[in-house]
């Protein structure tokens, strides 16, 4: 299907002429979903400017603009650029219409007219042509099928003739070639209709992924060629029809080309009605994250540029081309001459905008270092070259600027899920973007208390029907996990005080009561946020030292949980020594599969009574210590303790703990900030624990990873403990943007998207859970690796604890640094939790992508181990 | 300029025929900026469906769609609807082209053909016609200027002939009128070009505000008429050209009509390239907050509806009309017959979508009550009828659903600025909406630590060049004011420990050190947020009681500040008794203007030493009380203490306090969450204090009121106290969405918008402050009002403390309830802080709007006082 790559890498050196050469098919990547291929392949160069030429509609003169820019670039006597690459990915009406052929012809003509003493090397190459179009081009004299069988001359694949048509010539009288024009049509069809229709009718459909990979190769033409004054190549990619016209597969072109996010020129509409069409097309590009550098349109005497410029507030220059002669016999030479100053200006804008972008990309790391104060970051450990410049995101992938290889934008899988917030695939991101625009325009933000508006109401409805189903009756909104936890604690404490009739004895004013001390029950290794209230609910850790927060007191009874993990191929529980669990039989502490760990039948295990008595004893100890001290709330991260090091707590222990607290009228809080919304393969991690809380906190993935929003859900009983006659009895906690419309709208979209099997291919609707994303066998293999202490795989999460010497364990450990740097080179962006590393995908990520990442990790682990041994030997 | 209103309210009763009647000009509202008029005027009915008909381009058959819908509505033998109102706000090419004339004619013809036994009353009315168009209509035989002088027959205003052309007829043989068609053209021009060009060329420009007010009146036709099955009227508003075609004034129509946010039908493009144009037009409507209910397009044999439906995922139905005959002599009767089933479907979609909207609006208050848990709200005090249903926001105005008057959507000024967050005018809201779409598409959210991306970098740059100018060198991002304060405290404490060499003595592990107690210096009445750390930094209040947060301890030295306010026309200071300031002369404690309060020359006042010694004494007392207790940070809200009751603290006191703390090496934090970004008329309230902090917190208005984002700015010295070799020395505090791209992008836009005099009409660029927004004289008058204890006006804030008996003062007071309910009826949405009420506008709000609100308040205060006296007498 693809021409030989060498042709594409250095096309001006290897001339392919039809019927002279025969090529074997180059081995290509296996067909697979689009995103699979992004991983390492979809980079593009920044060695020279590449622009996409879009139009507001068909027939507005995109190709004339391309030709004019080509003329401006390579036709002057001392050309500012020595090479122009013109790429037409999709051409219909072929061979009668060929935009690359038009550019090739026109520029040749213009060259002879303007610069006859010099020499231009020009070529036109059509790479893939549908069979009907190919037949039309060469005549219908022989059967394609036959030739394919013999392996001679022709062959066809997916309905395309795949050698293409190549033509080149030297133009002008010069001895040496001064400038070069390379024109390429990637795919061509016969009928002069939209590519999606032509593809269907001619039986020749190009998958988006194939198109992108081929385009990527075409974009490599001219990499690294530098003229005297710097960059000497300009590349133009001309789209077909309007900005949102479907491509071959039916995807809109503005969506299709988005992974490259090339800077754009929009050819506007100078006709009656053209202002509207131009603005709308501009907006379709903008809300897909494109940068539009200039708008250019043909003069139709209506001065459409005036309202356009005014509306765009001069952010985007609007240029006007002279009227195009309507006479089809006109060779346009005169028009090109008249237009040249406009094209010179346009080219100038494009070059200077490119240079500005490059300059900015280069200065960003230094500026960031100078003025940012990154959270959780020791600035001294981040030299300039370690700063990652993120140019954009598409689905799970960052587009990152790299200085090497003449500069490029390359894709990296965001395997830390940007602090566990991310979920959207490309389609959801596009949808969310449009909805963010809609919601901002419709609501911006509006006051929440005593008011109701659609996004907040729908969001509350979806939360109560989803993660709160069966127990929650109220939604309290705030901004992040930490505030959601502080609210949950206030709710739980009030409930406890009411249930235990402690409120009655209190003075009704706002004096501080020191006779009652309320404590939380929480687990060692837990993490609930960084604000003081949330911190006080967690056990002492690196985050809570006096250096960090001198006000931290740790107002809790902190229990040590049993931890589950896969070690050397087996899932097993590590039980804290305190619990005296030496007698528990092996069958009850190790498992043949992860599912067994979550099995309800474990309620009959002898561990239950061991857990129960440990819990009772700890609660008793604590309440005995001070007369007025009460355990007034239980707070746990169900199943996975994230920041604590991706620790999987034995679900049986947590279930037992909940039961014990219930028996003592201690309200139960689940902190699902990390675990909620399919992170662990189910919508709410409570489903894995097989029990329900009184209060639960959600944030992070709730908005699909767009913007901050948190919700604290509560039962009706909890809510009722705040109802009364006085405003002072109400829960007086709120943040300015409580239930802000944009966050709620993003949440509504994401919640629905992830739980709909039409949009989430990973969902098994009957079971209401995600299919296994991390290859079970490979996970097992990794757990045997000598560099690995333990592994966890559950839902979208895969984690590895690296084997280290004791002194190097924990949050401050830098042991994973070299490993992660290698993985970044492989296109996987990870962040460590000390000596624990993890990969986190989205609920819609393809298992193929996960497999590829695991494979890469395995390879790098080998190197890592090897290095360590070497180092040890050196010492 | 407007026809007599009676004509518009009940047009079918008052028939105006040219040359028969002469009307005097009805007195109209004075010309004034658009938003001024919104306040009470721009409501529209929900008694029947009103739809806007938009198109992707000109010439796609909008008028045929209108006519088809009219036919479907009122032409069947038992019509589902009895009345069709067709409004064409802007008509060019008049009188040759008249879309309302076309609908009038076609429906009459169709009626005779389909339903000759019944009777239709049809009228066509053109209200305002440009002089050239009017001349063409009636002939060029007399001079308009002459007639205007005599006041007879014709008159013209702003280039329009203002009586209009009216025609009506009874169609059919029935005796009683069964159905009615009312067609109106609001403004017409002669040339068949875009309205903005025709307006300019014919010297007849309609201001947006005039157009909206007239449209509002037209929309009132048919209010409250109910058929058997409920609503019996359908109203269509047909736009001109494409969705983003400019109107008469040059504003794009999609922006121009936005305040009504009518549900929409989009006429798509069935031609080659039409998929793109249709999707782009759809998106232009969506990112302005419109609801598009259906797309309808003409069949051109390309099946454009297939990719459109697929792309829109069936959210929006796409209907296809038969090809329209190209022969201009075709009377289209056959085409209308063929199309009728499509129009019936379309009408069905429109009616059911309308009904769904109405049903939802009605159920929302109840659902909200059932599942929301509003912050700071005693649910028992909010009955269903008190819940405000907010349908949308446009600039400073909510569009609110009211059940009364057959149901309507009405505008209310958001005078609580939605918890002090709001700032955008309509143009900024549109810009922000597009930018939210762009940023979501380009970035979504990406990981912040160790990374850099454009919105975060630009935001940090703007913060340091703006509110942090001259002192700050680092930006730390978080989610809200409360987290920004917790971060600020951690920064200040570390700085204090380093400066005072206390860190060296500490154990380097994470044990809790109880030998050192750090306290904040803060003011009584201050408020810094609702998370525990922020609460502990404030003095005990209604928010901090044991009921609310049992963990609150109040770790501060809380000083009592002197308060400034205007009482009975004079600005004066109330100095706490403790300060022994009885001897201070009157000139030093009262001021002839507010500016005097802020004058630097007050540094020579005798108050300075009084303040100084009070501060010294309090700090000494506190540190003396425990050996290891240190005042380790000062935190103040500069100038205005918001939640404390809109208290204006004497700036001289705060300046003195800062100086005293500096002398003691106590780091200074300004909590500018409320005061930042022009809230007080300057970009940063530090400018009013004439001194700078070490650390400052910003949030709320920073994003222009879009979404949560906060920043804690710090000096380099503060930053350096976290730099070291260990990660554990870094500031380990962060939230998932730290520096999220959408928040940063919104902040960049807003920060630039408010400080640019081209976009902010209130800015006095030379002085870098806002002009006075609250009429000084009226504020003074209000301060004399017997119901008023004190007033404050500063920047965008105006506040009043109501005179109440002592027992009724404070946060829990409900005394303002009746007053605020009246003000809501007047279209002003306020929320009380106990017995303090306030109005807050945006940095761009017109002083005229503020004046109107003050006037309204004054009137209602009179009533309020009167009621109170009556009640007192009754008792």
Automatic annotation (TrEMBL), chains A, B:
Gene3D superfamilies: Aspartate Aminotransferase, domain 1, P-loop containing nucleotide triphosphate hydrolases, Type I PLP-dependent aspartate aminotransferase-like (Major domain)
Compartments where located: Mitochondrion
InterPro entries the record matches: Aminotrans_3, Aminotrans_3_PPA_site, P-loop_NTPase, PyrdxlP-dep_Trfase, PyrdxlP-dep_Trfase_major, PyrdxlP-dep_Trfase_small
A GO CC term attached to the entry: mitochondrial matrix
Keywords for the protein's UniProt record, in alphabetical order: Aminotransferase, Pyridoxal phosphate, Transferase
Chief location: mitochondrion
Listed SUPFAM superfamilies: P-loop containing nucleoside triphosphate hydrolases, PLP-dependent transferases
GO MF term list: adenosylmethionine-8-amino-7-oxononanoate transaminase activity; dethiobiotin synthase activity; protein homodimerization activity; pyridoxal phosphate binding
Biological processes per GO annotation: biotin biosynthetic process
Family: Belongs to the class-III pyridoxal-phosphate-dependent aminotransferase family.
Protein name: Aminotransferase class-III
């Amino acid at each position: 299907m693809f021409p030989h790559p060498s042709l594409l890498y250095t096309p001006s050196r290897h001339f392919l002429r039809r019927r002279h050469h025969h090529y074997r098919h180059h081995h290509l990547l296996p067909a697979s979903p689009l995103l699979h291929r992004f991983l390492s392949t979809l980079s593009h160069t920044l060695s020279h400017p590449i622009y996409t030429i879009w139009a507001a509609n068909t027939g507005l003169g995109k190709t004339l603009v391309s030709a004019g820019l080509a003329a401006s670039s390579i036709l002057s006597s001392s050309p500012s650029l020595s090479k122009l690459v013109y790429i037409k990915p999709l051409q219909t009406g072929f061979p009668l219409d060929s935009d690359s052929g038009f550019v090739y012809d026109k520029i040749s003509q213009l060259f002879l007219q303007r610069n006859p003493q010099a020499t231009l090397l020009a070529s036109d190459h059509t790479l893939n042509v549908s069979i009907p179009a190919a037949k039309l081009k060469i005549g219908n004299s022989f059967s394609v099928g036959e030739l394919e069988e013999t392996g001679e001359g022709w062959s066809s694949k997916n309905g395309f003739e795949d050698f293409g048509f190549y033509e080149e010539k030297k133009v002008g009288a010069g001895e040496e070639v001064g400038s070069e024009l390379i024109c390429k049509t990637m795919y061509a069809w016969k009928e002069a209709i939209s590519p999606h229709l032509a593809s269907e009718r001619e039986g020749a459909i190009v998958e988006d992924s194939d198109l992108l990979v081929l385009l990527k190769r075409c974009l490599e033409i001219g990499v690294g060629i530098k003229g005297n004054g710097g960059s000497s190549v300009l590349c133009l990619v001309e789209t077909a029809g309007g900005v949102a016209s479907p491509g071959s597969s039916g995807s809109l072109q503005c969506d299709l080309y988005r992974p490259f996010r090339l800077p754009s020129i929009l050819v506007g509409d100078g006709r009656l009605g053209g202002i509207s069409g131009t603005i709308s097309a501009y907006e379709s590009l903008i809300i897909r994250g494109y940068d539009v550098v200039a708008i250019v349109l043909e003069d139709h005497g209506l001065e459409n540029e005036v309202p356009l410029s005014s509306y765009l507030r001069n952010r985007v220059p609007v240029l006007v081309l002279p009227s195009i002669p309507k006479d089809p016999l006109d060779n346009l030479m005169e028009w090109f001459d008249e237009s040249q100053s406009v094209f010179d200006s346009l080219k100038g804008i494009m070059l200077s905008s490119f240079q500005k972008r490059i300059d900015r990309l280069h200065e960003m790391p230094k500026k960031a270092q100078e003025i940012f104060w990154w959270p959780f970051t020791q600035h001294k450990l981040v030299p300039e070259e370690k700063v990652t410049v993120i140019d954009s995101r598409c689905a799970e992938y960052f587009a990152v600027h790299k200085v090497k290889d003449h500069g490029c934008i390359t894709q990296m899988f965001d395997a830390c899920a940007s602090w566990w917030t991310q979920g959207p695939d490309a389609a959801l991101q596009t949808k969310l973007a449009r909805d963010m625009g809609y919601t901002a325009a419709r609501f911006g933000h509006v006051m929440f208390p005593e008011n109701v508006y659609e996004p907040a109401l729908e969001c509350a409805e979806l939360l109560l029907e989803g993660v709160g189903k069966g127990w929650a009756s109220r939604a309290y909104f705030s901004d992040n996990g930490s505030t959601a936890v502080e609210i949950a604690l206030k709710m739980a404490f009030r409930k406890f005080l009411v249930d235990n009739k402690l409120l009655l004895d209190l003075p009704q004013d706002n004096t501080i009561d020191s006779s009652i001390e309320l404590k939380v029950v929480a687990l060692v290794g837990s993490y609930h946020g960084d604000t003081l209230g949330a911190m006080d609910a967690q056990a002492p850790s690196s985050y809570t030292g006096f250096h960090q927060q001198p006000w931290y007191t740790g107002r809790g009874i902190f229990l040590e949980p049993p931890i589950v993990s896969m070690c050397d191929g087996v899932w097993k529980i590590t039980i804290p020594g305190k619990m005296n669990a030496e007698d528990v039989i092996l069958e009850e502490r190790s498992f043949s599969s992860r599912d067994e760990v979550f099995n309800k039948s474990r309620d009959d295990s002898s561990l239950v009574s061991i857990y129960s008595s440990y819990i009772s004893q700890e609660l008793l100890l604590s309440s005995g210590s001070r007369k007025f001290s009460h355990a007034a709330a239980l707070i746990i991260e169900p199943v996975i303790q994230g920041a604590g090091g991706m620790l999987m707590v034995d679900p049986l222990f947590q279930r037992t703990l909940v039961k014990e607290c219930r028996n003592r009228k201690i309200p139960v809080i689940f902190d699902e900030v990390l675990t909620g919304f399919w992170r662990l393969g189910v919508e709410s991690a409570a489903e894995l624990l097989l029990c329900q809380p009184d209060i639960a906190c959600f944030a992070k993935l709730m908005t699909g990873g767009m913007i901050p929003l948190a919700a604290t859900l509560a039962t009706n009983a909890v809510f009722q403990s705040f109802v009364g006659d006085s405003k002072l009895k109400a829960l007086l906690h709120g943040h300015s943007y409580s239930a802000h419309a944009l966050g709620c709208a993003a949440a509504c979209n994401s919640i629905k998207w992830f739980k709909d099997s039409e949009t989430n291919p990973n969902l098994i609707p009957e079971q209401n859970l995600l299919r296994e994303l991390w290859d079970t066998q490979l996970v097992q293999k990794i757990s045997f690796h000598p560099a690995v202490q333990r592994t966890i795989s559950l839902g979208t999460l895969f984690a590895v604890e690296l084997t280290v010497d004791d002194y190097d364990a924990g949050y401050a450990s830098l042991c994973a640094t070299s490993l992660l740097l290698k993985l970044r080179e492989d296109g996987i962006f990870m962040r460590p939790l000390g000596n624990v590393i993890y990969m986190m995908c989205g609920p819609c990520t393809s298992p193929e992508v996960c497999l590829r990442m695991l494979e890469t990790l395995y390879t790098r682990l080998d190197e890592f181990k090897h290095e360590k041994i070497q180092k040890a030997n050196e010492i």
